[in-house]
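Supplementary Note 2. Why include the ligand at all?

Several targets in our set were suspected to adopt different conformations when bound, so apo predictions alone were not considered sufficient. For every target with a known small-molecule partner we therefore ran a joint prediction. The input for 2-(butylsulfanyl)adenosine is given below.
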Amino acid sequence: MADSPTKKVGTSVESSERKFSQHKHKERLYSLDNTYSYDDLRLWYERLIKNYSLDEQPELVCELKIDGLAIALTYKKSEFVLGATRGDGFVGEDITNNLKTIKTIPDKFAANISDLEVRGEIFMPKSAFEALNKKQMEVGGKLFANPRNAASGSLRQLDPEITRQRDLSMFSYYGRIDSNEYKINSHSQMLEFLKEIGFNINPNFKLCKSIDDAIDYCKYWDTKRQSLDYATDGVVIKINDFNLQKEIGYTSRAPKWATAFKFPPEEVSTVVENIEVNVGRSGAVTPVAVLQPVYVSGSTVQRATLHNFDEIKRLNINIGDRVLIKKAAEIIPKVICVTEHAKNKAGAFLPPEFCPSCGTRLVPVDGEVNLYCPNTLGCPEQIKGRIEYWVSKDCMDIDGLGDNIVSQLVDRGLVKTPADLYSLEVDDFLKLDLIAEKSADNLYKQIQQSKITSLGRFINSLGIRHVGKETSEQLASFFGTFDALKNADYNQIQKIDGIGDKIALSIIDFFSNSFNNDLLNRLEHYGVIPLKAESSKKSDKFANMVFVITGTLSDTRDKFDKIIKDNGGKTSSSVSKKTSYVLAGENPGSKIDKALGLGVKIINEEEFNNLLNNL
Ligand code: IVH
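The joint prediction is reproduced in token form.
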């Protein structure tokens, strides 16, 4: 229809709501198992030789693992008819019209082939990603965190014209064809064939005669990958011979004839331009390194926390120093070491004596490495921190109330505590810079709507020390009402499974503070009252079991977290001897190494579902 959202350019429909029709893949798109060390890679190869009684060393093909999105293209009578995302490997989304705009996907090819399926990875070159973000910044649009997200967002546009402008590309790494007819007996021959008929093949693939050759390939690209204009997070190593591949076969989620070697986190050199001192909502003062912007593990990094002043001393770091940085657990930028001190260096950066926000003399706290600003009620940065936390996603989730607006509200004296938010009128927002009437109206509504919230969220929003999202949910389901928690004594709280002495003391401390009680009274006055918690418990199947979730699963981690808890289990963010299972999705990261080291059982989603259904 002419007024269909698909006909509108730049429609505001969110990607999660968009509907592309589903496509059932003719043959499953498997995932890959990962290896993280050269020893493991060698073991994988030697095990194949042993388990399948192979006489000779089988040939391998090494390819760069492109950090993009897997797709499958169907060609009928040499013409492109349908393209779909990988989805869960069985069913994906039909994004044919968007894929047709990508230059490296041929519409048709010269050879006469009735049925061909080509698989590969869609990616956005790093240069195109930087240019896109620059453009987005100029027009005030959404910035993408990394090229992979930019490629994904660009592919899921309802208007193919937007996809066309996004400079996407594809490397093909698989072709499904009647290989007997075409005398294609190996993966390397298939790649050459695809290249010949017009597909874009990554030129860096290599046929290797031994596992040593493959390891050399991995080592070479680990150091050279930064110079490529596309993101790669590892090497895919595949047995070359098709007959051997067939003989070796698949596990429930991945081929046994292939593995992905994941590169260790990238270490990149940059310069410390400044060391800023931040004041958090608890008054803790933390130094942050402001860096010369540098691209590392998929995104541009400009800041790295230095944690505390002991860490500054340990690193012996100061402004102007050249440093090595990496992303810890591939997410949080971390300074590893100083590689070259600034000329005229005056030693390590010294801790400030006074709070950079309110000028109060900083104080140490017994047993802690941080310095604190004791001006809890008057320090603007602490106030802003508490309000920003209050409105954030896992707390009261007040949409649209960004840091900039919070900052203005606090600086103009309109808000001192979270309760003040509920006294604001539309006119108050109109006094702020760059707020139009519609946004002011919207902000007012969002704040009013947030008054009714779940007990878990409400507890989390209070920012009680040592009480995060998980503990808040636990307290909510244990006590059921806010009054029950407020009136609980130390012994009662401390008895709850998983809540120890430190948390219990902190909760008691929170409710005995007059500032907090005043805040709670005022919140109640404005009608901010949490709902009673409902128990969602379904079974005790996972009683006494601790799960660690890692990697990308078919749904959000929160969803799996809830399933585990609803069935009596616990989740933890780090692997230890106490972990019962690591539930691993795609690209699981270093937790797998730890689990392997400790002999903790690793299960995939299918095995998790079986466990739940069969217990
Ligand atoms: S082969 C049956 N080759 O990695 C083998 N995959 O972690 C399946 N990927 O879903 C894939 N570059 O999206 C293969 N050269 C490459 C690849 C590659 C990137 C992705 C692909 C797959 C994921 C598995």
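The pocket of 2-(butylsulfanyl)adenosine is lined by residues 30-32, 63, 65-66, 70, 86, 121, 173, 236, 255, 258, 260, 586 (CB under 6 Å). Residues 1-18 have pLDDT under 50 and may be disordered. Comparable summaries for the other entries are listed in the accompanying table.
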